[in-house]
Design the sequence.
C-alpha cells in the first residue's frame, strides 16, 4: 500500500511517500479500513523530531486522524460490516484491563495514539480495534470526517466532562485557528455558552466570528483579560488555554472567582507559575485534559452525526503531496484542519 512515512527523526524533509506492507486483521476484535482521508494534528509535527519516551520503528507511517470504509472485519466484531463509512478514534487501549473496562481507557497502561506511539493513518489501509471506529453520516465530506476525531474529542472532554460548561456561561478560547480551539468554539456554542475567541490574526478572528464566536479579540493589540472582565464584570467562567507560558497569567487574570481553567497543551512552553494564595482565595479549578474515552467519543459522534459539529477544513492535498500538508501546519497560518486525501 502507499503511505506517507517518516524515514528517520528530523524535519519535514524526512517524510517520504512509499510502499509499505498492507496490514491484515489479526485479532477477532479488529477491523481493517480503506482510508479515504487522513488529517494532521499539531502532534504530528512533534513526532517528526521525536518525543521523550517513544521509540519509533522506521519507516514510520505518520498521521493521527482518519476516515474511510470498512474493508475487513474480525470474527468477533458486531455492528460493523464491509462498506460502512467510519471515522477512527486514534486513542488505542487494550480493552481488557480495569481502566479500560471501567471506561477510563486513556489511563490504560498500553494507551497510545495512532501516528504517535503506533503506525499512523496516512496510508491506504489501517487496522484498528472495532471499538475505535464510529459510523459517520454522508453530511460530512471525507475531508470533514477525517478532520473530526482527535481535535473534536479532545475539545469535547475539555468542555463537557472536565470544565462542565453550562448554558449562559462565558468561555474564553485562546488562539483560534487550530483544530482543538475551533472544535471548542463549536462545542461551547452547542452547549449554549457565550464564546470569546482570540487570535493575533484579524483574518482568523473574522473566521471565528463566522463560525459562531460572540466576541473576538486580537490578543496582539488588545488586553484580553481587561476586555473579558469588561464584558462579564467578574471574568470568564471557563478559560480554554492550550498556549501555555505566553497566556497563563492572562488566563488567570481573565478567570472569574470560582472559574475553571482547562488545558490540553502548551505550545509556547510548559513551565508556569501560580500564586497559591490566589488559587485558594478565588477557588479556581485548574483542569488537565487529554484525548477522550470510548464513551465520550460515542457522545461526540452522536452530536456530529446530528449535523451540529462540522470541522472546518483549511486545506486538502493528495497523498503524493502530503509534505505540503505538513508545511501548512508548520506555518501556523491555517484556520481549520489540514487534510490528506489518501484514496478516492
Ligand atoms: Zn487497558
Sequence:
Amino acid at each position: 500500500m502507499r503511505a506517507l512515512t517518516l524515514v528517520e527523526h528530523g524535519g519535514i524533509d524526512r517524510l517520504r511517500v512509499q510502499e509499505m506492507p498492507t496490514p491484515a486483521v489479526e485479532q477477532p476484535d479488529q477491523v481493517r479500513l480503506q482510508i479515504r482521508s487522513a488529517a494532521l494534528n499539531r502532534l504530528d509535527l512533534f513526532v517528526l523530531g521525536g518525543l521523550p519516551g517513544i521509540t519509533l520503528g522506521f519507516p514510520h507511517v505518520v498521521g493521527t486522524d482518519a476516515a474511510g470504509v470498512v474493508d475487513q472485519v474480525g470474527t468477533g466484531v458486531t455492528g460493523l460490516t464491509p462498506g460502512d463509512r467510519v471515522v477512527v478514534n486514534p486513542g488505542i487501549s487494550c480493552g481488557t484491563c480495569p481502566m479500560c473496562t471501567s471506561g477510563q481507557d486513556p489511563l490504560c497502561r498500553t494507551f497510545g495514539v495512532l501516528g504517535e506511539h503506533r503506525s499512523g493513518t496516512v496510508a491506504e489501509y489501517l487496522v484498528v480495534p472495532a471499538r475505535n471506529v464510529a459510523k459517520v453520516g454522508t453530511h460530512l465530506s471525507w475531508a470533514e470526517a477525517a478532520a473530526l476525531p482527535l481535535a473534536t474529542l479532545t475539545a469535547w472532554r475539555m468542555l463537557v466532562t472536565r470544565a462542565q460548561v453550562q448554558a449562559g456561561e462565558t468561555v474564553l478560547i485562546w488562539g483560534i485557528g487550530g483544530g482543538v480551539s475551533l472544535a471548542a468554539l463549536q462545542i461551547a456554542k452547542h452547549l449554549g455558552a457565550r464564546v470569546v475567541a482570540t487570535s493575533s490574526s484579524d483574518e482568523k478572528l473574522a473566521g471565528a466570528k463566522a463560525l459562531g464566536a460572540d466576541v473576538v479579540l486580537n490578543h496582539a493589540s488588545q488586553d484580553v483579560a481587561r476586555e473579558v472582565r469588561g464584558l462579564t464584570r467578574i471574568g470568564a467562567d471557563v478559560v480554554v488555554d492550550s498556549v501555555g507560558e505566553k497566556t497563563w497569567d492572562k488566563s488567570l487574570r481573565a478567570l472569574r472567582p470560582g472559574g475553571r481553567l482547562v488545558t490540553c497543551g502548551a505550545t509556547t512552553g510548559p513551565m508556569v507559575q501560580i500564586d497559591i494564595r490566589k488559587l485558594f482565595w478565588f477557588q479556581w479549578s485548574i483542569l488537565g485534559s487529554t484525548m477522550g474515552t470510548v464513551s465520550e467519543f460515542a457522545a461526540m459522534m452522536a452530536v456530529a452525526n446530528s449535523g451540529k459539529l462540522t470541522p472546518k477544513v483549511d486545506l486538502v492535498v493528495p497523498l503524493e503531496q502530503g509534505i505540503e500538508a505538513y508545511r501548512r501546519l508548520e506555518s501556523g497560518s491555517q484556520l481549520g484542519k489540514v487534510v490528506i486525501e489518501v484514496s478516492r
Q: What stands out?
A: The CA atoms of residues 70 and 84 lie 5 Å apart.
